[in-house]
Specification:
Largest sheet: 3 strands, mixed
Number of helices: 8
Number of domains: 1
Radius of gyration: 22 Å
Number of strands: 5
Distance between the termini: 57 Å
Order of helices and strands: HHEHEHHEEHHEH
Length: 218
């Protein structure tokens, strides 16, 4: 019988548990940032849990027709006699529970603590930047670099409200991505089928987690 040295067993165990460690660290970072905006540990844990679960829940707002062109067939005579076929499907515009509704509720919670004009200016600038750096992926939705919005939001919070940075950074970070990346890009989604979720898919980090990082850095 072959026995592995204890050091090798420890290394293998560490490698197997590494994803769990990273997950726990991320959860603790999110809880810490939520604590900085005035939430109790139990409330912070519930919001983290609801956000993670809610990221898989899309609430449909409206449905419209979508037309896709199928790939070319290997039989050219088919198109000659019958024309290029089109397949009518549905495009669903939805709102994500974890990436939109919950962050908006946190923004409403922070709004009384935020100075009005600094928050307004920071949100407008963040929105414009997020709109310009976001990209529409046909059939998928909108994607945005996750690190740029929080850095912009925190920088603007330091400029416009150095004495009260956290609510300004969080609100402008969340609303900037939500409005700039998702809502302003709705007219540019095209007629592709699938679920286009506000706050979901490629911008989940840019709405909920980016807001959390903004609060943490501020």
């Amino acid at each position: 019988m072959i026995f592995l040295p204890l050091s090798i067993l420890i290394i293998l165990l560490f490698i197997l548990l590494l994803p769990v460690f990273f997950f726990i660290i991320q959860i603790e970072i999110i809880r810490l940032s939520l604590g900085k905006i005035g939430l109790s540990p139990s409330s912070a844990f519930m919001i983290v849990l609801l956000s993670l679960i809610g990221s898989m829940i899309n609430i449909p707002l409206y449905t419209r027709e979508a037309t896709i062109i199928p790939p070319e067939t290997s039989f050219p005579f088919f198109h000659f006699f019958f024309g290029t076929p089109y397949e009518n499907t549905k495009q669903v515009i939805a709102i994500n529970l974890g990436g939109c509704i919950i962050p908006l509720l946190l923004c409403i919670y922070l709004l009384p603590k935020a100075p009005l004009l600094p928050t307004l200016f920071a949100t407008i600038i963040t929105t414009l930047i997020c709109f310009h750096i976001s990209t529409v992926v046909p059939g998928v939705g909108v994607r945005i670099p996750a690190l740029i919005p929080p850095l912009v939001a925190v920088s603007l919070a330091f400029i416009f409200s150095p004495g009260n940075k956290i609510p300004v950074a969080y609100i402008s970070g969340v609303l900037g991505v939500l409005i700039g990346a998702d809502i302003l890009n709705l007219p540019h989604l095209g007629n592709y089928p699938g679920i286009m979720s506000i706050g979901g898919a490629g911008v989940y980090d840019g709405i909920f987690l980016v807001g959390i990082i903004s609060a943490l850095l501020a």
